[in-house]
Amino acid sequence: LGLLAMALSLLFLDLQAVLAAKVALYSLGLLLVCLFAHRELAASKPEPERLTSFWTHAAAGGALGSFLAGVLAPSLLKGYFELPLLMAGTALLCLWRMRGAGRWVMQAAAMAAVFAATPSLALIQNYYAGLVDAGRNFYGSLRVVDEPATETRPALRKMLHGLVLHGSQFLDAGMENIAAAYYGRTSAAGLLLSRPGPARRVGIVGLGAGALAAYGRAGDVFRFYEINPMVIEFSRRHFTYLQRSAARIEVAEGDARLTLAREAPQEFDVLVIDAFSGDSIPAHLLTREAFALYRRHLRPGGVMAFHISNQYADLAPVVRALAAGEGVSCTRMQSPADPAVAALASTWMLVDTGRAWAGPRPEPRFRWTDDANSILPVLK
């Protein structure tokens, strides 16, 4: 029953609407599986004179499990397959332990094992569908996949961090320079970076596939800040945005805030903060102190663009409160999806330091600081 509950949650892995149900199902399944495992451990306890050896072996099993999960799995598995593999293995173990319990009980247990193991193994199979490259490190599991052409768009290559899209690019010749995903021409970043004018210095926190480099013109400098070395490697190996850009491309590896704190003022005309689309919000990039640091690297009248598309949190009140605290204007911009150019709906907050704040003051609780910030008030 516990494995069936966990398997059911896997079937709805990417649906935000059932997040609470998924957490409840996982918790219920984990409780029942642990109860089963502890019951089996208690049932196998030997006579008192052999207890020392018994508990020594139990402790060794725990150490072995920690080694497998902490060392071996990250070295051998390209994705987070530990949970589905353990679910399938536990289903087989339960079936083996119930052998000899009667025909009908065995048939029911076999069906339950199949229903529990199938979604787990299907999850691993889907991971490799269209796979070009994959890997995992301290920052998570990263993969590059190719999607075939459809009736509405050509073939597409995507970079995925878990289930979060980090960028995409058309594979057809002549379309490689079209910025796709959240960075299409109608997005706030696309409109901002497509403006005619003199050469610019553009800072971008978060590299992804490097799609924003498509807006670089001769004489421009686009400086990317990226903390994950695997993202840098994959963006150069499997995507051509950086190589094809007319701008001079610079990539600084490391935490963006720490890197910016060490650098002299960069005099950016535009600073794009694109690090909030995942399910883990880097709050240190969205505090009063971080905001002040960004302003130090902007030219007078420069613009900051915060990409806040996120299925779990609405960060608009936070950015608005930070802008109001500095007395500069802030505008929310949303762009619709356009399947023809693989553009996704996106939400951006544009902070124009050349214009003063106009409007009521946001609630102080949304003005995050390094000492006080909470994701709970902005959860959707």
Give an overview in words:
The chain is α/β, with parallel strands linked by helices and about 375 residues long. The chain contains eleven helices and eleven strands. The radius of gyration is 25 Å and the shape is elongated. The longest helix has 26 residues, at about 50-75. Strands 7-6-5-8-9-11-10 form a seven-stranded mixed β-sheet. It has helices spanning about 1-10, 20-45, 50-75, 80-95, 105-125, 190-195, 230-240, 240-245, 255-260, 290-295, 315-325, and strands at about 130-135, 140-145, 155-160, 165-170, 200-205, 220-225, 250-255, 270-275, 300-305, 330-335, 345-355. It starts with a helix and ends in a 24-residue tail after the last strand.
Give a quick precis of the structure.
By secondary structure, the protein is α/β, with parallel strands linked by helices. Helices cover 39% and strands 21% of the residues.
Write the layout of secondary structure elements.
Layout: H1 2-11, H2 19-43, H3 51-76, H4 82-97, H5 103-127, E1 131-137, E2 140-147, E3 156-161, E4 164-170, H6 188-193, E5 201-205, E6 221-226, H7 229-238, H8 241-244, E7 248-253, H9 256-262, E8 268-273, H10 288-296, E9 298-307, H11 316-326, E10 328-335, E11 346-356
Parallel strand pairs: 5-6, 5-8, 6-7, 8-9
Antiparallel strand pairs: 1-2, 2-3, 3-4, 9-11, 10-11
Helix pairs in contact: 1-2, 1-5, 4-5
